[in-house]
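User: Please go through the entry that follows and flag anything odd:
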Amino acid sequence: MSQSLHHRGLGVWAYGLLLLLAALPPLLTALGMEFYLGVMSRVLIFAIAASSLNLILGFGGMVSFGHAAFVGLGAYTVGILAEAGVVQAWVAWPLAMAVSALAAALIGAISLRTRGVYFIMITLAFAQMFYYLMVSLKAYGGEDGMPLPQRSLAPGLDLQNDAQFYWLILALGALVMAALQRWVNSPFGQLLQGIKENEQRMAAVGSPVFAVQWQAFVLAGALAGLAGALLANLNGLVTPHMLHWSQSGQLLIMLILGGAGALWGGVLGAAVLLLLEEVLSGYTLHWQMVLGLLLLLVVLFAPKGLAGSFARLRREKK
């Protein structure tokens, strides 16, 4: 197996990181900083969304500029079901993933027949179609969006409690990352990465290029739908802005910062971008300029993102 196509997890460090993150709610409560629990919940949700994009972009080489559509569709599924009285998480969240996966299956079946800038523009076009559809649906709030009457109900948990909701997000995030590691290191993942490296050669040796890319696209859509379901519950509101192209751009920026193609690139990028946004916005209204400068420095001096830089430093130490 090619070492470059094999992606290790954090090893024993992962358990320490999980314990540290799990200890945050009581620690923040003791420090009187409960507000940051919502910030960390948001970081974890966007880490799931960015990691789902990493599956198709970082490991599959498919630059989608409409990935936020699947996040938004997952959020709207939860919102519409909640308005209809279906608030059980075990019903609404899998349905949100199914709706996003179905949308990804349809979009992928069309867009994956194109390459390069045409693929980018088709995914963008589909995302904007869904965006304007939600804007036009006045029954679901139109441009103003629709509030959720309450958070979803989960057996044995009180998701109205921010700490318990955070712990559930953390558990789901850990499961998503474990699944991604298994997928990218499986024969399916090896094929996907091989197609990214040389699609023509993989097709010449008989690899089912379209089928592998399409399956990855659907899986990424389903995970993005889960992120959307969680985000809807966190915000208590779903709006068409969740599907806008600018949100897809934000996910791309997270991957560029963290490192596309690195297993933890999406997580690292989401954490850096959102935490810096939270800190810098408290000091200046022009925080986006600072983040833009950081992104420029990463592109110039760390083309493989922060995860790539950390890996290089680790190799040099050895």
